[in-house]
Amino acid sequence: MVKVKLLSRESAQELLKALKGFFKGLDEELEVYVASQVLGLPTLLLGPHGTGKTTLAKAFYDALVIKEGKNYRPLKKFFLLVKERHTPFDVFYTYHLPSLMKGEERIVPKAIEAEAVFLDEPFTNQLITSALKDFLEERVYDRYQCKWLFFTAASNPPNLFYETVMQLKNLADLDRFDVVILVEARFGLDLYEMVKQMAESNQRRFGPKIDFKIDVSNIEEVRKEMMSLKVSKEALSWLTLFAHALSACAYEDAERQKRILDKFSVLEALPCSTCPFRQHKLCSKYA
């Protein structure tokens, strides 16, 4: 029988240790991801194909259970690779057609009933991206209350994949997410070790082996405790400095006038004149 541990600092650290053993070279990214999910912050994983974004979300959600009576059950999960052909009815809920034929309004809930939601490549569909605002910020879609406890989205960096799909200057789309994590290649994992893991696995897609579960029935109490933690003035100052540094870029125009470009402005998108990545319209730290 799999051992179940109550959500706590110790059990979260043990889960982190198991994840770090598989996603080598991503220690800081994993710490931010687990902390943001435990706190209930919608998280966007940005990175190229094959960096383990989907594997990470699946492994994390599969490790969580909820107590129901005397037993434990897995989270109610909703996973979807978003395509251009999808509509919000493919994501949030759809209507029960037999009931509609009888003149009765009845829905078949999808993401609105899920406790853990993962959307892969949401920016391929602007209807779904737009609908995420109320779903994430208000926890309401149409008139239905949403029940998600954990939310993750994954995407390629916009300048690598979406130049013909989304307007790069409309970065307000990223405001849907409280945390954005750049997931690079697993630098600490060499090719031999990767091939060895694939050879020893009996599955096409393998993931970290976690031999215990975490009971998140107390998630609301844990979040209240985390939100009550005091933050020092020094930490607030550093956070403010980092926010300005990552969201703005200073450059000189043709007349040698220094200008500040807000990277998250929806009014314009100008290339950074002094940046080697200026053809991407976005600084390399961000994209």
Counting H and I runs of at least 4 residues, what is the number of helices?
Answer: 10
Q: What is the assigned CATH homologous superfamily of the largest domain?
A: P-loop containing nucleotide triphosphate hydrolases
CATH topology of the largest domain: Rossmann fold
Please identify the top-level CATH class of the largest domain: Alpha Beta
Q: Major beta sheet, specifics?
A: 5 strands, parallel
Order of helices and strands: EHHEHEEEHEHEEHEEEHEHEHHEE
Distance between the termini: 44 Å
Percent of residues in helical segments?
Answer: 25-40%
Q: State the shape.
A: globular
Strand content: 15-25%
Low-confidence stretches: 264-272, 277-287
What structural class do helix, strand and pairing data support? alpha/beta
Could you give the topology of this structure?
Layout: E1 3-6, H1 9-22, H2 27-39, E2 43-46, H3 53-62, E3 64-68, E4 71-74, E5 77-81, H4 88-91, E6 93-95, H5 97-101, E7 107-109, E8 116-120, H6 126-138, E9 140-141, E10 144-145, E11 150-155, H7 158-161, E12 179-182, H8 191-200, E13 212-215, H9 219-227, H10 233-247, E14 248-252, E15 258-262
Parallel strand pairs: 1-13, 2-11, 2-12, 3-13, 5-8, 8-11
Antiparallel strand pairs: 3-4, 6-7, 9-10, 14-15
Helix pairs in contact: 1-2
